[in-house]
Specification:
GO terms for molecular function: catalytic activity; molybdenum ion binding; pyridoxal phosphate binding. By secondary structure, this protein is α+β, with helices and mostly antiparallel strands. The chain is built from 6 helices and 13 strands.
């Protein structure tokens, strides 16, 4: 069964690892009550770096509990729900294999998969793991950013139900492989998801696809 194992909200922290702003909301902790998810974000959460986070298509971030277990074993440190900066820790959901534009019903909300998370230096600094950006990118299991189509409350234990999937069949992992690993062989396939991408990301991905198509 695909469920939410934890809903997480930010505890704003400061430090040299937090980058140019000196503070970050990446440290998220499990909430003990239902949390409202809205088109503009997660109620009670905090976004410090609004230049790179907090757009409508990044209203929430979901990560698999199985991936937290993977990195706990890989790094020899226990990672808890919320430690990847995720609002939703999921169990039994292979989120990185979700399709761009796939729609989920969770609790009282309807969410739509918009794209992969790209690891950054703040993430590596928070985990205190040199080279984490490279390791995380090579592993390629990124979790997903979500837009909120229908606001509603979500609680730990809520089922994750797939409402619809687009016909293009482009997985989050495939988009990440093209943009971060230069997988030109995926360009034609990934082009199918362009209409389902947020405008800003669509332009970036299209720029990656065009040179690949020209040399095919």
């Amino acid at each position: 069964m695909s469920v939410v194992s934890s809903v997480n909200l930010a505890v704003v922290r400061s430090g040299e690892w937090a980058g140019r702003l000196g503070k970050s909301g990446i440290d998220k902790r499990p909430a003990d009550a239902p949390v409202l998810f809205t088109e503009t974000g997660v109620q009670g959460d905090a976004v410090c770096d609004t230049k790179h986070h907090g757009a409508w298509y990044q209203a929430a971030y979901a990560f698999d509990g199985e991936e937290l277990a993977h990195w706990s074993a890989e790094l020899g440190k226990e990672l808890m729900p919320g430690n990847a900066g995720e609002n939703l820790t999921l169990t039994g959901v292979d989120s990185t294999s979700a399709l761009i534009g796939e729609r989920w019903a969770i609790g009282g909300a309807v969410l739509r998969v918009t794209g992969p998370r790209q690891p950054c230096r703040v993430f590596a600094g928070f985990w205190d793991v040199p080279g984490l950006v490279k390791k995380f990118t090579q592993h390629g299991r990124t979790g997903v950013y979500l837009a909120v189509e229908q606001p509603g409350e979500i609680s730990a234990g809520d089922e994750v139900r797939v409402l619809s999937q687009p016909d293009h069949g482009v997985q989050v992992a495939e988009l990440f492989a093209l943009t971060m690993h230069g997988r030109a062989d995926l360009a034609e396939h990934v082009a199918g998801c362009l209409p389902d991408l947020p405008e800003k990301w669509r332009a970036t991905v299209a720029a990656r696809i065009e040179p690949s198509s020209a040399t095919a």
